Recover the amino acids of this structure.
């Protein structure tokens, strides 16, 4: 004896509830995967990988763009052409496409003074990076920052760029 429905509505409801787990629109939405390293993240925001030294241990990026990078080394010096840059144990700031603002933890040597880099802008059209030191800024070709460099433990002086392998 076969089971029969007299009206189409109960048949529809029976099939709907039977198949509901398979056709449900309440499927879990997967979160987009965060890049594995800060070096994978930087190009997504228009920056070359080499603006951060190879000693980056971890990073965090919040949904509002605030970031923090922790470095393995407690002191890290890099030479970019004729610019000496120092990275503290942690660097922080706010990241948006083509712009990093409110930077702390990265300094550059100007004449005899260490001054904080407060922002970096990237211009895809010109291929230049603009580094902001307070109200002053300096533009450098982004191609100088394509390669990730290892930290130097000591301060490099001007003219010592040969110590760091070619960029």
């Amino acid at each position: 004896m076969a089971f029969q429905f007299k009206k189409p509505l109960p048949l529809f409801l029976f099939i709907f509830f039977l198949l509901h787990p398979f056709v449900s629109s309440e499927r879990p939405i997967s979160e987009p995967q965060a890049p594995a390293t800060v070096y994978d993240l930087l190009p997504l925001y228009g920056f070359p990988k080499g603006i951060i030294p190879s000693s980056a241990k971890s990073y965090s990026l919040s949904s509002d763009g605030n970031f923090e990078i922790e470095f393995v080394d407690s002191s890290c010096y890099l030479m970019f052409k004729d610019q000496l840059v120092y990275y503290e144990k942690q660097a922080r700031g706010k990241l948006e496409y083509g712009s990093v603002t409110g930077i702390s933890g990265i300094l550059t040597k100007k004449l005899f003074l260490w001054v904080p880099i407060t922002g970096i802008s990237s211009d895809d059209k010109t291929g230049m990076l603009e580094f902001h030191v307070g109200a002053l800024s300096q533009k450098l070709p982004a191609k100088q920052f394509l390669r990730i460099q290892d930290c130097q433990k000591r301060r490099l002086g001007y003219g010592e760029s040969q110590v760091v392998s070619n960029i």
Remarks:
- The chain has two helices and nine strands.
- The chain has a mean pLDDT of 81.
- Residues 38-149 form a domain with the at5g01610, DUF538 DOMAIN fold (CATH 2.30.240.10).
- The beta strands are 56-61, 66-71, 76-80, 83-96, 99-110, 113-116, 119-123, 128-133, 136-141.
